[in-house]
UniProtKB/TrEMBL annotation:
Transmembrane regions listed in the UniProt entry: none
GO annotation, biological process: carbohydrate metabolic process
Alpha-D-phosphohexomutase alpha/beta/alpha domain: residues covered: 7-133, 157-256, 264-370
Family of this protein: Belongs to the phosphohexose mutase family.
Name assigned to this protein: Phosphomannomutase
Species of the source: Streptomyces showdoensis
Lineage: Bacteria, Bacillati, Actinomycetota, Actinomycetes, Kitasatosporales
SUPFAM superfamilies referenced in this protein's UniProt entry, alphabetically: Phosphoglucomutase, C-terminal domain, Phosphoglucomutase, first 3 domains
InterPro entries named in the record: A-D-PHexomutase_a/b/a-I, A-D-PHexomutase_a/b/a-I/II/III, A-D-PHexomutase_a/b/a-II, A-D-PHexomutase_a/b/a-III, A-D-PHexomutase_C, A-D-PHexomutase_C_sf, Alpha-D-phosphohexomutase_SF
PANTHER family, per the entry: PHOSPHOMANNOMUTASE (PTHR43771:SF1)
Domain Alpha-D-phosphohexomutase C-terminal: 375-448
Key words, A-Z: Isomerase, Magnesium, Metal-binding, Phosphoprotein
GO MF terms, alphabetically ordered: intramolecular phosphotransferase activity; metal ion binding
Cofactor(s) for this UniProt protein: Mg(2+)
C-alpha cells in the first residue's frame, strides 16, 4: 500500500516523527525522487545532531546515487552551512533537520543549485507523488551507472565566506553569551568566532538531539530564560540564541532584554544599504513599521511580502534585493545566495555594537520605535468564521484600510494588526503594533474578544 505522506510533506519541507511517520526506507525513495525531479547529476547532503539524522541522510544518499547522481556528504552542519555548500559548489542540496521540533521528529529541507528553495509548487509536490507511487510499486530501477558518494569538509570555508561579508577588523572587545540549545550552533560558532576579539561564554554547546536543557526554539520566551540570566550574571555585552539547525539567531541586550527581530532587521538593513546604496529590502507583513521607515531613511526601497521563506526568497530573486528579514528571526542576504543565515545577522550585530562605544540597548533603540504584542495564538474551531467576524467589525471604520495579502491586515493611523490562519494547526495568529503601549493593549484585548468569542 502506498505511503500516505500528507502529514509529513509540508509547504516548504518534509517533517515528521521517526520512525512512526517516516523512516530510512522512505528516505531512500526521497533521495531517488529528488534526483529525478531536479535532474541532478550531483547533489550535496548535510545533517544535524538528531539521533536519526545520520541514518536518514545515508539512506537518502543511497537512493540518489542509485539514480546516477554523485553525492557529496558534508556531515554535521547547520542549515545555512548546507546552503553555503549548495551555493559555493553550485549543487542541489538536502539538509536533514527538524529545526526546533522535539527530538522524535526529523525532516528534510531541499534546495536546487545555488540554494534556490524547493517547496510545494517548485518540486516538492512532484517528489511526494513519486515517493508515494514507489512505496506502493517498488523502488525505481537503478541507473545504468550509479553515482559516487564522497565526503567533504565545508565548515572552515563556510566561516571564511561569512567573515568576508562583514568587516569585524576594528571592533572593540565584546563579551558575548551564546546559547546553542544543544543544536548546531555548538558546531558552527567556535569556528566562525575563532580569532575575533570576543570573550565567548558558551551555553549548551554539546550536540544533543534529545535537547536535555530546553527546546531549541528561541522564539518561545521560556527557552531564552537561561540566556537572559547568564548575560546579567556575566555582565556581558549581549547574548545570542540559535535554534536547533542554527539558521535563526535571537539577540538579547546587556540587560538580558530580548531585542525584537524587527529591530535587528532594521539595523542590518541600514548596514546592507550602506554597502549597496539604493538597494531593495524585503520584509514580511508582520515586521514592525520601523523596518520600512529605516529602509527609506537609508535610501532604500522596502518591499512587503507574505510570511514564509519561499515568498521572501522568490521576491529577493525577482527584485534583486540586498537583504530580507522576517519577524521570526530569519534573515536573508543577496551575498548568501538569497538564503537565510542567522549567523551572518549575528556578525552584523557584533560589527555594529563593536564599532561604537554605547550599549546594545541604546544602539537598537533607534530601530525599535513602537509597541508590539508579539505573536498571540488562539485555538479556534472555525478559522474562516472568526476571520470574517473580525473583518466585519473593522472594515467600515473611518480611516482604516484593509488588505488580504496574507490573512487579514487592518491598518489605522496609530496602529495595525494582522490576523492569519495557521496552515498546520487550528490556530489564528495575531500580531499587533501601535504607537504606544496603551493603544496596543486596548486593541489587543478588543481583537482577541472577537477571535475567542
Amino acid at each position: 500500500m502506498a505511503a500516505d505522506l500528507s502529514q509529513i510533506v509540508k509547504a516548504y519541507d518534509v517533517r515528521g516523527v521517526v520512525p512512526d511517520q517516516w523512516d530510512e526506507a522512505l528516505a531512500e525513495l526521497f533521495g531517488a525522487a529528488f534526483v529525478k525531479v531536479t535532474d541532478a547529476g550531483a547533489i550535496v547532503i548535510g545533517h544535524d545532531m538528531r539521533p536519526s539524522s545520520p541514518g536518514l541522510s545515508a539512506a537518502f544518499a543511497r537512493g540518489a546515487a542509485r539514480q546516477g547522481a554523485d553525492v557529496t556528504l558534508i556531515g554535521l552542519c547547520s542549515t545555512d552551512q548546507l546552503y553555503y555548500a549548495s551555493g559555493a559548489l553550485d549543487l542541489p542540496g538536502a539538509m536533514f533537520t527538524a529545526s526546533h521540533n522535539p527530538a522524535r521528529y526529523n525532516g528534510i529541507k531541499l534546495c536546487r543549485a545555488g540554494a534556490a528553495p524547493v517547496g510545494q509548487d517548485t518540486g516538492l509536490g512532484e517528489i511526494r507523488e513519486l515517493v508515494e507511487r514507489w512505496s506502493d510499486e517498488g523502488a525505481p530501477a537503478p541507473a545504468a551507472t550509479e553515482g559516487t558518494v564522497t565526503e567533504r569538509e565545508t565548515l572552515k570555508d563556510y566561516a571564511a565566506h561569512l567573515l568576508s561579508l562583514v568587516d569585524l577588523s576594528a571592533i572593540r572587545p565584546l563579551k558575548v553569551v551564546v546559547d546553542a540549545g544543544n543544536g548546531m550552533g555548538g558546531h558552527t560558532v567556535p569556528t566562525v568566532f575563532d580569532g575575533l576579539p570576543l570573550d565567548v561564554v558558551p551555553m549548551y554547546f554539546e550536540l544533543d538531539g534529545t535537547f536535555p536543557n530546553h527546546e531549541a526554539n528561541p522564539l518561545d520566551p521560556k527557552n531564552i530564560v537561561d540566556l537572559q540570566a547568564r548575560v546579567r550574571a556575566e555582565g556581558a555585552d549581549l547574548g545570542l540564541a540559535f535554534d536547533g539547525d542554527a539558521d535563526r539567531c535571537f539577540v538579547v541586550d546587556e540587560n538580558g532584554d530580548p531585542v525584537s527581530p524587527s529591530a535587528i532587521t532594521a539595523l542590518v538593513a541600514a548596514r546592507e544599504l550602506a554597502k549597496n546604496p539604493g538597494g531593495t529590502v524585503i520584509h514580511n507583513l508582520i515586521t514592525s513599521w520601523s523596518v520600512p521607515e529605516v529602509v527609506r531613511e537609508n535610501g532604500g526601497t522596502p518591499v512587503r511580502t507574505r510570511v514564509g521563506h519561499s515568498f521572501i526568497k522568490e521576491e529577493m530573486a525577482k527584485t534583486g534585493a540586498v537583504f530580507g528579514g522576517e519577524h521570526s528571526a530569519h534573515y536573508y542576504f543577496k551575498d548568501f545566495w538569497n538564503a537565510d543565515t542567522g549567523m551572518l545577522a549575528a556578525l552584523h550585530v557584533l560589527a555594529a555594537l563593536g564599532g561604537q562605544d554605547g550599549p546594545l540597548s541604546s544602539l537598537v533603540a533607534a530601530y525599535d520605535r513602537y509597541a508590539a504584542s508579539g505573536e498571540i495564538n488562539s485555538t479556534v474551531a472555525d478559522q474562516a468564521g472568526r476571520l470574517a467576524a473580525v473583518r466585519a467589525a473593522y472594515e467600515n471604520r473611518d480611516g482604516v484600510t484593509l488588505d488580504e495579502l496574507d490573512g487579514l491586515t487592518i491598518t489605522a493611523a496609530d496602529w495595525w494588526f494582522n490576523l492569519r490562519a495557521s496552515n498546520t494547526e487550528p490556530l489564528l495568529r495575531l500580531n499587533i503594533e501601535a504607537r504606544d503601549e496603551t493603544t496596543m493593549q486596548k486593541l489587543r484585548d478588543e481583537v482577541l474578544s472577537l477571535v475567542r468569542a
